Amino acid sequence: MKQIFLFLVLMYNTVSTSQTVLASYSIDLKTPKEECETLNAENTVTHDVFAFIASRDSLTILKYNSALFLNDKFTTTRQYVEKRSLMGYSFSEDGNPTLYWFSPQENNIIVIKYYFETKTIRALKFALPVEEQSIITHYQKDNNFYLLLQYKTKQALTVYVFKNGIADEKFLDFSSFTFRDRKTQQKTFNQILYENPIEKMEPGEYNPLYSVTAKSKLYLLPNRLILSLDQSPRKTQLFDINLENSEIKEKTFLQPLGQKNAKTSNSFYHESKLYQFNVNSNELLFDIKDYNSGESQKSFTVLKNDTIRFNNSPLLTQIENRRPKEIKNTGRFLKELAMTNAGISVFKNKKNIFITLGGTGSSSKTISMNSFNMFDDFFGDFPSNNYYNIDSDYSVFFESVWTKKLEITTVTHEPLASDKIFYFIDTHKEIFIPNILKLNSYSILGYYDTLSKQYILRKFVDGFE
Prior knowledge:
The chain is mainly β. It is built from six helices and 32 strands. The chain has helices at 12-16, 189-195, 209-212, 330-337, 376-379, 417-426, and strands spanning 19-26, 37-42, 49-54, 58-64, 70-77, 85-91, 97-103, 108-115, 120-127, 133-141, 144-151, 156-163, 166-173, 179-180, 186-187, 198-201, 216-221, 224-229, 235-242, 248-254, 264-270, 273-279, 283-290, 296-303, 316-319, 325-326, 341-348, 353-368, 387-402, 431-438, 443-449, 454-460.
């Protein structure tokens, strides 16, 4: 299911006037679409912006300064990285980029540094320990490239930190900690992650509802990771991981206690605060705790006959990507929310803190084919009763806007840059291989325009302006 946006129903003119073309570069990608990739990146030290444009036979690197003026480019072949996918990037202290090219067939990564001064490259091969470990995720942070793997037999993770051409291995041992599932049965670390795969949260960005419903979430901080586990409806178990010395500290936060047991629950970590909520068909409990002290800073209890005091949108339900529909009362909302996988997302921009609280689920609907004989050839053979099932993803949610001091507001929730970007992509069929780069005050959509045969960078900002 695609990202859920309340503002997909915005008027097109509102969206189109809030984006600006920053740069365009003429390039003809003549190879099949499935053999092309793009990636945008910022050197967080120099604030230069790079666009990596890969076709089947060549790679073009565009280097822009912080004002988005093109000041250099580098075109080279795909030597050493044919039939490989572009996994990520890093930047060395000399300002030159390094790309990481992955092959699942060969189970290795080709690491190539691109020297703009001499227009030369230096390639290395990094063999993945696939017999012992499997890839969980990868990410960029502070100009470094990170690769997270999980051991198949050991109760541990490994983080490889690629910096200045060197891969530093960090072994993270979880064997000494105790883990329990939803039924309070003791499980190993690997069993918990097998049942609840880790979902990476994107720092500084809005993480959509379908992503934050994960019971195991990974938060990326400078030289730190926070792994949160919410498989138990009674508590959130967090592991604060120091990547400099591989030290792991455990923290446990109890979920707020209601009149009845929760049907579904979850949490979200954001800027030294833990946002927790749980729900059943009679009540919703929402708590904001200080991560360091564990003390509750805000606490709300909403009963089925109450009015929710901190929602800035209607109570909504949405099937797939259709227009959201309003749920008329709190009781109905809680009943539907209690049947979902709960999730909460927290995002901050220059003005406010935005909270999406809800859940996602899947429902099956039985459809009669009696009046659709014209589709028999398409659908093939059906059972003699001419009925079949359709599975649909749906969500139940509301949105809330707070001040940075955690004060409730009554302001209208304005569209985020990410809302506008996905709306823009949905309404422009000429967009190919899009890529999004989040900067401090705005977001950049980079994409290949199949009509003009140009690579274009567009600027999007939060709000209606």
